[in-house]
Amino acid sequence: MTFCLTLTNKILCSDSAVSRKQTASQTIVHVGYSQQEDSCQIWVATDHGKVAFDPASGKVLASIPAPGQGNDSGLAWAEGSLWVGQYRERKIFQIDPETGKVLRSIESNRFVTGVTWVDGELWHGTWEGDDSDIRRIDPQSGAVLERLEMPKGVGVSGLESDGKDLFYAGGGGSGRVRAVRRPKRG
User: Fold this and answer.
1) Chain centroid to CA 93
2) How high is the pLDDT of residue 122?
3) Any residues with CB less than 8 A from the CB of 183 and at least 6 apart, and which?
4) Sign of CA dihedral 167, 171, 172, 176
5) Which residues pair with 166 in a beta bridge?
6) The pairing of beta strand 121-128 with beta strand 112-118
7) Is 48 buried (19+), middle (13-18) or exposed (0-12) by CB count in 10 A?
8) Could you tell me which of 113, 121, 86 has the C-alpha nearest to residue 171?
9) Which of 32, 47, 118, 123 is nearest to 82 (CA)?
10) 3-class SS of residue 4
């Protein structure tokens, strides 16, 4: 299995570092990356919680409970916090990575299928029936600020950014990854 990570504005795909962390009791769902001063961590969402490890040594650095008990649908690092999507609950949680405490809960009116940050903007994917879009939302209020609608029948089943102007959206059962251009800014 291959997991894609956003590292220093590049999409890197690796099945070696992450798959060795997979056990029979924990299925890796989503992967996120954080850069803090002179170190980095890779955060992994499992059925049982969020685990941070050092990508060089594989050493587990932190472990916190998952708010969705394994039903997470996205994981991103921004503003010193983990941001976790909840598919069925239609929510995005801001989580303190030290304690696992939910700092903020943002409601969505659609299923949340992925979460990413780019240039200080919070974006998430949605998919409901034949309708799907990628939304920029206000991280304080949850208000939808911008929508990139997908063609009818094209689903967004995961979301990541290249750190610049492209989103990569999973296509559910189609097995495809769609590149979606982020609108240019000012």
Assistant:
1) 11
2) 96
3) 146, 148
4) negative
5) 181
6) antiparallel
7) middle
8) 113
9) 32
10) strand
Averaged pLDDT score across all residues of the chain: 76
- Residue 23: Cβ within 10 Å count: 9
Q: How many CB atoms lie within 10 A of CB 13?
A: 8
Number of Cβ atoms within 10 Å of the Cβ of 107: 11
Structure tokens at 171: 């296509």
Q: Which of 92, 70, 71, 72 is nearest to 83 (CA)?
A: 92
Q: Is 1 exposed, middle or buried (0-12, 13-18, 19+ CB in 10 A)?
A: exposed
Closest listed residue to residue 135, CA positions, set 120, 150, 153: 150
- Please tell me the pTM assigned to this model: 0.75
Whole-number Å distance between alpha carbons of 171 and 110: 17
Q: Provide φ and ψ at 14, rounded to 5°.
A: -145, 135
Q: In 3-state terms, what secondary structure has residue 14?
A: strand
pLDDT band, very low/low/confident/very high, at 39 (cuts 50, 70, 90): low
H/E stretch holding 18 reads helix 16-19
